[in-house]
Design a protein that fits this description.
single chain; mainly alpha; 101 residues
Length: 101
């Protein structure tokens, strides 16, 4: 038995880096209860996912391929980044939190 790529000879697509970065940024918010430490990791992950998503979206539109994965990566990265920025603003506007003592 021989394994084929598919009926049209297409190879299965891998997950784009934008989806990986965006998924990691959102997953850290849901899986780790230590938000004071998590936002420091999520912010760069989310920003990287946004940049990669824009690059992949432009490349997909030029090549005429599907833009579903870049859009998903952009959405996940935006959610993770907005959550990190919102928590960062919350922490810095509340001086009574133990993090700033």
């Amino acid at each position: 038995m021989t394994i084929t790529d598919g009926p049209a000879g297409d190879r299965p697509r891998r997950t784009s880096p934008a989806v990986a970065f965006g998924g990691a940024s959102v997953a850290l918010w849901f899986c780790c209860p230590f938000w004071m430490l998590v936002w420091i990791l999520v912010l760069p992950l989310g920003l990287t996912g946004i940049v990669r998503g824009v690059i992949e979206y432009r490349a997909a539109s030029r090549q005429g391929t599907s833009r579903a994965q870049p859009r998903t990566g952009l959405a996940l990265s935006t959610v993770g980044t907005v959550a990190a920025v919102a928590y960062m603003i919350f922490v810095f506007t509340h001086p009574d939190l133990p993090l700033q003592d």
